[in-house]
Amino acid sequence: MTETTKTHVILLACGSFNPITKGHIQMFERARDYLHKTGRFIVIGGIVSPVHDSYGKQGLVSSRHRLIMCQLAVQNSDWIRVDPWECYQDTWQTTCSVLEHHRDLMKRVTGCILSNVNTPSMTPVIGQPQNETSQPIYQNSNVSTKPTAAKILGKVGESLSRICCVRPPVERFTFVDENANLGTVMRYEEIELRILLLCGSDLLESFCIPGLWNEADMEVIVGDFGIVVVPRDAADTDRIMNHSSILRKYKNNIMVVKDDINHPMSVVSSTKSRLALQHGDGHVVDYLSQPVIDYILKSQLYINASG
């Protein structure tokens, strides 16, 4: 299977990230490594989407803090970025609606630019409202930011911090290069792009709780998008899937990461991190990155909280 025939994937993780842990970042890394090993996928980016404040979970700190902690946690990653769209909405959004938002966004644009945490004003964060324009996304008056043919062709699988040539599979687009005034146009072959929900086995297990999830949403999440599951605490994912008719129905759309079942990060959780912070436990450095710990201490988060 050639690079152009492999499915290009963006991994999307929704959650509280209260706070974001080393385990969350490792979840992205493990999923990417596994998908690459299958030989069927190229992961071109990862998106962390923190939940809206109105989710109502006890002990959930403001999205303002959670967004900053997430940005600090991924600041050295060249492929994982934080998306604020979910937090910026008027109210809580379902996981299904977040997936649909990103899918619709991909349909509307011909390239993806995710900002670096240190340069939020220079490049738009994917999902952040942009000024409406009737011009194609690649046509603007700023010559220095126009993508050359080499940029577009060369950056497809590298990183979402650069321009990526990604398009919906339904229709073709014509990209006008910097010599457009000379009548030169360039066409690029379509690539298949999928947004997959990345989650731990605990979220997969929640699908089996009657009434917790809207069944129509589950059909869309698993049937239309697909899930990449990173097992936690040696969970039996086959047993979990057999408990849900929808999970059984779309079993082929559920990819379970099969690596080291005793991976040290598989037991790390936000709950353990908060408890370690409250009790002054030195093991907190095993759960959280130092920039996140520094921000928590500076902002006095979780220290006097309960749960």
TrEMBL record:
CDD domains assigned to the protein according to its UniProt record, in alphabetical order: NMNAT_Eukarya (cd09286)
Keywords for this protein: ATP-binding, Cell projection, Cytoplasm, Cytoplasmic vesicle, Golgi apparatus, Lipoprotein, Membrane, NAD, Nucleotide-binding, Nucleotidyltransferase, Pyridine nucleotide biosynthesis, Transferase
Organism annotation: Catagonus wagneri
Gene assigned in the entry: NMNAT2
Protein name: Nicotinamide/nicotinic acid mononucleotide adenylyltransferase 2
EC number(s) from the headed UniProt entry: 2.7.7.1, 2.7.7.18
Subunit structure: Monomer.
PANTHER family on file: NICOTINAMIDE MONONUCLEOTIDE ADENYLYLTRANSFERASE (PTHR12039), NICOTINAMIDE_NICOTINIC ACID MONONUCLEOTIDE ADENYLYLTRANSFERASE 2 (PTHR12039:SF18)
One GO BP: nicotinamide metabolic process
GO MF terms held by the record: ATP binding; nicotinamide-nucleotide adenylyltransferase activity; nicotinate-nucleotide adenylyltransferase activity; protein ADP-ribosyltransferase-substrate adaptor activity
Pfam families noted in UniProt: CTP_transf_like
